[in-house]
Amino acid sequence: MSFADIETVQSPTGALLAMRFSPATGPGKAIIQISHGLAEHCLRYDRFAQLLNSHGFHVYAHDHRGHGYTKAQGAPLGRFAERDGMRLILDDMDAINATARARHPALPLVLFGHSMGGLIGLNYVLGYQDKMQAAAIWNANFSAGLAGRLAQGILRAERMFLGSDVPSMLLPKLTFQTWARGIKNARTPFDWLSRDPAEVDAYINDPLCGWDASVSMWRDVFGFTFAGADDSLLAKVRRELPFNLVGGAEDPATAKGSAVKDLSKRMKKLGFADVTTKVYEDTRHEGLNEINRDVIMGNFVEWAARIADKQALNLERT
Predict the structure, then answer these.
(1) Is 99 among the domain residues?
(2) Dihedral sign from CA coordinates of 278, 282, 288, 293
(3) In whole angstroms, what is the distance from residue 56 CA to residue 308 CA?
């Protein structure tokens, strides 16, 4: 089965989730569940999935509600839901997780989330930590602080005065457009994603990418951000759960990787025993689509293989 093929998974939320699966080459040793970013879709992870397959990993991914080919009531492109979007997103994640684990019950599962997908991923860990054996949280910013609270205030005002759940007028200016201005000699408004012109052009030319999110979707995104920033919630996660934290030193969305380092420091202070952190020099937001992607993906494969080998050894001992 190709990663390009779509399977439809019925979520308990009522959503028809567009799921993609590609099997490991040879005997599988672990499952990778991918959670994609804002204003994109999971097919953009095809190259990553193929590499993982070649190293013995089954890969599952789905389009979040309001993205790609997933269909859900009240969730057109750009909106998670009319209300309660955070819970619905996590319930959808759990439906894919359950599908993957049911198909490969003896294998460990590693959760992988990029950007918004990393925000969702850590929130999934907070509520469902027993359904994975490790988590990779990439290019995600949980350090929004006062600027994030200001953004939430702006979104409350927009919800009040715009009269309906329409694309936010101000949040794109405070995020994507601000990040674009941080790139010197930019060729396009999306050069903050990657130094690879072909990858940037592919994103721009993809009708399922780059659209403006609704006010409610932005509100939910910041809800995930501040939940993940709450140490009292993170402290409830088992300390032996391995984490892989990755960012780019030229990524404006994470303050040039400082937000990734902040999360790492929080975890280590709380006593997490296995936190692998790497901020890649000269790298922008999408490490998987950067010019140094082979190194970045190769390092992830080595980390995930270590997790899989460790889990296999634990099973042998029991």
Answers:
(1) yes
(2) negative
(3) 10
Does the residue 201 lie in any domain?
Answer: yes
1, part of any domain: no
Closest by Cα among 40, 35, 19, 7 to 208: 40
Q: Residue 160 sits in a domain of what CATH number?
A: 3.40.50.1820
pLDDT digits (tens, 9 = 90+) for 187-199: 999 999 999 999 9
CA distances from 85 to 213, 219, 242 (A): 13, 9, 28
Residue range(s) defining the domain that contains residue 111: 7-317
The token pair that represents 230 in the structure block: 């709450």
Is pTM beyond 0.85 here?
yes
When pLDDT is cut at 50, 70 and 90, the band that residue 164 belongs to is confident
Q: Which of 59, 143, 131, 149 has the alpha carbon at shortest distance from 90? A: 131
Q: Return the ∠ at Cα 91 (arms to 87 and 93), rounded to 5°.
A: 120
Residue 268 lies in a domain: yes
- Please say whether the beta carbons of 195 and 286 come within 8 A: no
* pLDDT higher than 90, residue 265: yes
Q: Tell me the backbone φ, ψ of residue 248, rounded to 5 degrees.
A: -120, 140
AA letter at 52: L
| Domain total of the chain | 1
